[in-house]
Sequence to fold (249 residues):
Amino acid sequence: MKTVMFYNQKGGVGKTSLAVNFAYLAASEGFRTLLWDLDPQASATYILRGDDGDSPKASKIVSEEYSLDELAISSNYANLFLLASSLKMRLFAEKLAEAKNPRRRLTRILEATKDEFDLTVIDAPPNLTDLSETVISAIDLVVVPLQPSPLAIRSSQVMIEHLESIGLSQKCVALYNMVDQRRAGHRSAIATEEPVGKLAKLRSYIPYSADIEKMAISREPLPIIATNSKSSVAMEGLYNEISNLIYAR
Ligand SMILES: Nc1ncnc2c1ncn2[C@@H]1O[C@H](COP(=O)(O)OP(=O)(O)O)[C@@H](O)[C@H]1O
Ligand SMILES: [Mg+2]
Fold:
């Protein structure tokens, strides 16, 4: 089983939108996919039409009393399962930190479902806590979405430097989201092969698109509401690039 997390300590950069679409595309290719909403704001849960009642207590996950597949619910889409979030999930970090070896515990929790799921996609909460470091060390790939503006890059720099200092930056790749081709700065950012800070940059990028905002209104993944749109095609390109990366690792 492979594990990918969409992560940035900044909110509003597209983690949830990208995680939902990535998980949906993997599921539609036939991979049994778990979308683990780890953010107590529960936006991914909302988009996939889950609610508070679908969310388990964090202690149920951490205690290993139940496996993730027992706690997950089916979504409206074939092969796509949701581990729903709610305010209850805010205790996950604390509960996991109580384990003797949090990283090993999390690895075991993920491995317990390796026969049930081909892929787990984690929608991360927007803060750099010990939890994020534990999760990053236990998974295959971290996708860091950010806008290609100098200020957004600068503010992600601190996080990127931190990941580097703890030896985790080679697991992380940067992804430009909300790209506006009318802006020269955006055009040159996506054209360069230079890393972002020290993070390798994905070739794919996601344009700014009102259809992505509509996901939260119609509560459906992008390919359903805007089939063949520019943003949908970009999302598929992103899916292919990321899956090539994780299966090469
Ligand atoms: N490429 C995009 N184009 C337009 N709007 C976007 C795009 N990506 C995300 N958004 C919007 O930006 C807001 C924040 O996105 P979200 O995925 O919730 O970010 P995060 O999970 O990082 O907080 C949402 O309203 C979402 O619809
Ligand atoms: Mg989010």
Notes: The longest strand covers residues 172-179. The chain is about 45% helix and 15% strand.
